[in-house]
Amino acid sequence: MVKKTVHRRKSQSVHSSKRATTTSIGSDDDARWTCAFDADSSLALVRSGINGHKLRVIDVHTGAQRSEHAGEGGAKIHSVAWGTQGAQGAQGAAQAVVAMGLQSGDVQLYSPARGAVVRTLAGAHTGAVVALAFAEGRLLSLDGDGLVVQWDVASGQALAQMRTGLAGARALLASADGQRVAVASHRIEMWDVARQSRLHAWPGHASPVHTLLWAADEAALVSAAEGDRHVHVWDASPDAAARPRAVLATDSDVMHVDVSPRGSVLAVGADGVLHAWHQVAVAQRSANGPRRGDIGYTADGRVRFASTADASRTLPVLLARFSRVAGDEGHVLVVRGSALKPLFEPLSLAGADGQFAPELVLSREPQDNLLLSAGQTAAEKQVAAQLHAYSEQGATVTDPLAEGVRASRAAADDAAGAALPSLADRIKQLSVAGSDQSGAPALAAGLKLTAGTLVRVLVQSLHTSDHEMLETVLSNNARANVVRDTVLGLPTAYVLLFLQQLFERFHATPARAAQLLPWIRSTLALHSAYLTSIPGLIPQLSGFYQAIESRLHTHQRLLRLSGRLELANTQIRARSQLEKAHDRQLHDSHKNAPMQPLNTYREEDDDESDGPTRLSTEPPTPVWQAAQSTDDEASSDDDAQASDDEQWNEGSAASSDEEMAAEGSGSSSDDGSDDDSNEDSGSDSASDLDELE
User: Fold this and answer.
1) Which residues have a Cβ under 8 Å from the Cβ of 348 and sit 6 or more positions away?
2) Among the listed residues 259, 231, 262, 261, the one whose alpha carbon sits nearest the alpha carbon of residue 245
3) Could you tell me if 241 and 263 are in contact, meaning their C-beta atoms sit under 8 angstroms apart?
């Protein structure tokens, strides 16, 4: 994917050197470019390729590419910086080189004049080299652990190492004499290289710093950070305060910053608008200027590029730098377009009074980078004219095999006054009334067009610009062999036009990638020999290439988010399962445990009935067991009550028997008298019965 980042130029106090020491840092997570300007007229730009990153050296005056270098083995470039190799001042001895910090921890020196890597510096870093800086013929490199290494460019040996201990370091800035270096992560620290001691520290930003620049002859520092809408200006003097000297506010996240030799600052926001502050970073300001320490300086000038087709559409500015020519304080170089085809445009910000224009809106033609755009070459226009020299709108294209059948039925059709339907009409009859989600008409169930039929339909649709017929062809993307045979049978004169139609649909509706990519891939692979013979092919394919890169950039973020969400969901599911298993185990243990009564009463024997009733001291049963055993306790209470009643009845019966026995023994002596009395009573009863009768 294309990465955009800031660049760092040489100290303002060194004007005699012919090369500016610049560096930059970028990662896959941001949208900045990894690039660096030299002091003359070149831009070193890193862009992603199929097999790793590529370094391009571009002339900022003509926009032409001077040289290109592809990393070996898919190497990724994290930082670049301009410098020189060889003895300074020797005639023809020094040559301009671009230092490249690799993800592997190595540093390579690339010579644009030779078009090759002239030296590799290795063995000091274990992680990616995130920042580089040249100073006094030496190269300083920084990795993410805060390790700063000094290299001898001539011999390729590491001279010294300095461990700052600043975790997550992202930016490096060296003084002109190489005695001081500034290292930044979230915070900014100034170090003495010779003593390897920290001189000063500033709180920095809430997010990682991506840009550090000198200002006011190395008396001030200018910094910008990821996701931050403010540019901070810090006092770099020995007795500097911890708070920023000035805070410059923009309307969006700052993507790129540059400082002029006279202390003016410009910043490019994520919205593509250029902000400029006039001499805000100098040590002293006029009495009428803003007070030092003010928070949120508004820009003295703003520049926006608007599209000629739509004035509300902003054509984003990607990079900008002040002119290094003395006296051209208000002149800047603006970079627009894309990493594949950057557009360089000089611009004047200052008016007749030397102040920046408060609001400047410039209209420019949009660069959509589509095939056959407004900037097409003469050869492309000639091909387009040949393809559209005539129109076959309404023409009938039939199958040669069906030509005999058509001829035999022509007379009958003419007599009946019915016209033979065209191929387009017959294709429409094969389509159902509705369409799928992508907008292409869906074929009726069971009907599949062959590759030969699709070739003829595709040619006719391209000739007549029949979008419905073309969508019918594109809907047959499920069968790879049919797609391959159809593209293989397409005449070369229609290849560019077919790619144009595919790219336009892909650009308008990226959700149709699953349907369009098989056709695009087959066309580029099967007609590669013809496409490579077309002049200026790379700019024509840049729009599609950028669309693919943007999709891949988003895809990586979605994959990382998906991984985080999957990890969180896995932890949640695992914890939920553990809690359920624990609850189920606890419930089973309680359910299988024997029930215990709350209280137990025991009935004493008869000989101990006078004593108090003893209460059992057995442990009480839990409440849930007591609730479950309510019915059992009720039945046990009924049985106990019945037992007590039986014992009571037995005792009563025994006492009655004893009384009866006592009465019997007491009346044994009177048996005779009782017999006499019984006889008398019997006679009396008989007499009474007689009277009644």
Assistant:
1) 330, 331, 332
2) 231
3) no
Supply angle C-alpha 40, 77, 209, rounded to 5: 80
Residue 327 contacts residue 306 (beta carbons within 8 Å): no
Helix (H, G, I), strand (E, B) or coil at 690: helix
Nearest C-alpha neighbor of 174 from the set 138, 200, 203, 123: 138
What average pLDDT does range 114-132 have in this prediction?
93
Q: Beta strand pairing status for 431-435 and 441-443?
A: antiparallel
Give the single-character DSSP code of 401.
Answer: G
How many Å apart are CA 234 and CA 245, to the nearest integer? 5
pLDDT at 102 over 60: yes
Instruction: Print burial letters for 538-560: b (CB count within 10 Å at least 16), e (below 16).
Output: ebbbbbbbbbebeeebeeeeeee
Whether residue 107 contacts residue 89, with contact meaning beta carbons closer than 8 Å, is answered with no
Residue 21 has φ and ψ, to the nearest 5°, of -85, 105
- DSSP track, 338-385: -SSSEEEEEEE-B-TTSPBPSEEEEEE------TT-TT--HHHHHHHH
Distance, C-alpha 376 to centroid of its chain: 35
Nearest to 256 by CA among 8, 27, 549: 8
Q: Which amino acid is at 214?
A: W
Q: Distance (Å, rounded) from C-alpha 149 to C-alpha 140?
A: 6
What is the Cα gyration radius of the chain? 48
Q: What is the mean pLDDT of the segment spanning 122-137?
A: 92
Query: What is the secondary structure of 543-607 as a DSSP string?
Result: HHHHHHHHHHHHHHHHHHHHHHHHHHHHHHHHHHHHHHHHHHHHHHHHHHSPP--S--B-PPPGG
What crossing angle do the helices spanning 495-508 and 537-592 adopt, rounded to 10°? 40
Percent of the chain as helix, strand, coil, to the nearest 5? 35, 25, 40
Six token digits for residue 674: 């009782």
480-491 pLDDT, tens digit per residue, is 888 888 988 888
Residue the block writes with tokens 């915070």: 187
Task: Provide the pLDDT confidence category of residue 621 given band limits of 50, 70 and 90.
Answer: low
Q: Give the amino acid at 378.
A: A
**pLDDT of 303-332, one tens digit each?**
999 999 888 889 999 999 998 776 677 889
Mean per-residue pLDDT, 666-683: 46
Q: CA-CA distance, 114 to 72, in Å (whole number)?
A: 17
C-alpha distance from residue 368 to each of 284, 505, 523, 541 (Å): 45, 14, 22, 11
Local confidence band at 537 (pLDDT 50, 70, 90 cut-offs): confident
Q: Is 351 helix (H, G, I), strand (E, B) or coil?
A: coil
What is d(CA 110, CA 394) in angstroms, rounded to the nearest whole number?
Answer: 60
Would the pTM of this model clear 0.85, i.e. be above it?
no
Amino acid in position 618: E
Q: How far apart are the first and last CA of the chain?
A: 141
- Please tell me the distance from the alpha carbon of residue 290 to that of residue 123, in angstroms, as a whole number: 49
Question: What is the rounded CA–CA span in Å between residue 33 and residue 78?
Answer: 10
CB hemisphere CA count around 374 (13 angstroms) = 6
Least confident stretch, 394-408, 416-430, 444-458, 505-519: 416-430
Task: Say if CB 150 and CB 138 are below 8 A apart.
Answer: yes
Whether the Cβ atoms of residue 616 and residue 601 lie closer than 8 Å to each other: yes
What is the three-class DSSP state of 134? strand
